Every structure is written in structure tokens, then in C-alpha cells.
Amino acid sequence: MAVNGVGDNPYAFLNGQTSSTGNEAKDTGELALEDFMSLMTTQLKNQDPLKPMESGDFLGQIASFGTVSGIADLQDSFSSFAKAMQSDQALQGSSLVGRSVLVPSSIGYMSPDSGLTGQINVAEPVSDLKVTVYNEAGVAVKTIEMGGASGYTNFSWDGFDDNGNAMPEGIYQFKATGTVDGENTAFATATIAKVSSVLVGSGSQGLTVNLAGIGSVPFSEVQEII
After folding, report:
1. Between vectors from CA 171 to CA 115 and to CA 126, what angle results, nearest 5°?
2. Average pLDDT in the 124-132 region?
3. Cα gap 34→48, rounded to integer Å
4. Residue 96 contacts by C-beta under 8 Å, 6 or more apart in sequence?
5. What's this model's pTM, rounded to 2 decimal places?
6. 26-35 — which CB contacts under 8 Å span 24+ positions?
7. Residue 213 neighbours by CB under 8 Å, 6+ apart
8. Which of 11, 22, 29, 79 sits a CA distance of 20 to 30 A from 218?
């Protein structure tokens, strides 16, 4: 017989047999600070009276929890920072398209309108600096006598060979040499190229610029934006 609406088993609620129409909180599987303190309190209540927990152990557990929690917060901060950096790179990259940049290279793209321009790092002063331009077959087509030079020195080629003939538009290689202490010495070179597009990488890849007629170059190698 039921009394006051209670069924045959008045203790059913102890076994979780009651139903609830409200929304129940979902367990995310994460150990929050309240859970940690509850576990610590239970541990203190049930510890062996003859071997109580040392205060140092208690503080050590709290410190461990704080370290784990701090690392999680730090990871979230780094994730937000990385997203902000990618957005900044995208904005920076879009402003580069159509502009010219100076990058370390011994090849350049010659067009009838702008020719080919570059820069030489003359590490040691010389009196006979010269730039030799080669076509894709490796044949020297132009020698530019630049005379005395020291430090960073700019050069340009109008696209005509030594015989005054106009060379076809395309990729050419150039080498810069001079006499240092009686020996013919090669110097580092760079070329000026136009940015045709930009690729925003993820993670540590960073920004990559695609140069017309040359190819892809990491933005970190760009020496100057012109």
C-alpha cells in the first residue's frame, strides 16, 4: 500500500531511480579548483591519525595543481597570440603584392621595361668590380665594368648584350667579381624582384612571398622593401 504517493520502495531515490525534468550539468572531464579542494578535504578527513599529511605535502599538491592550471592558461594565451600573428601576417602580406623587394640571389628576371637590377656586397674594396650576366644556357651575354667599389653597390642591366642586341625577356644569372690581394674574388649578390602573391603559412612556416619570374622566398630573407 502506498502512503502519500510514495511507491513500494520509498528508498528508490538513494539508488538514483528518481527522474528529473531539469537540465543536468554535464561533466566535462576536467578537474576544476572546486573539485581539487573537495578531494583535498576528503583526503584530510580520511588520513591516518598516526601519520597525518605533512604541511609540505599539502602545499606541494596545491602547487602542482596551480602549475597544471597555469600551463593550460598559458597554452590558451599562446593560441590566441598565434591567431593574432596570422591575421597580422595576412594584412602585412596583402600590402606587399605589386611592390618590389630585395632578396639574396644570383638570378634575376629581366624585362624590357625595367631591365634587371640588383646589389653587390663588396666585402673588400676593389678597383675593378665587374658584373657578368649569363643566359639560361650559361653563356655570358653582358659584362658590366663598374670600376672601384666598396660596401653595398647597386647595379642595373638594360637587357642589351655586349654587341648591342636586345636580349629576350626572362631569367638571367649574374656574378660579381673583383681583385682582392691579387686574386679574383666573387662577392655576394642580391636581386630586386616584384611580389606577385603572398602565402600566409601556419605554425612556424611564416610568410612566403612569390616573386615574379623567380619563385617563392621566405619573407624572413627579404632584405629591403622598395
Report:
1. 65
2. 96
3. 24
4. 195, 198, 209, 225
5. 0.61
6. 31/65, 33/65, 33/69
7. 109, 170, 171, 193
8. 79
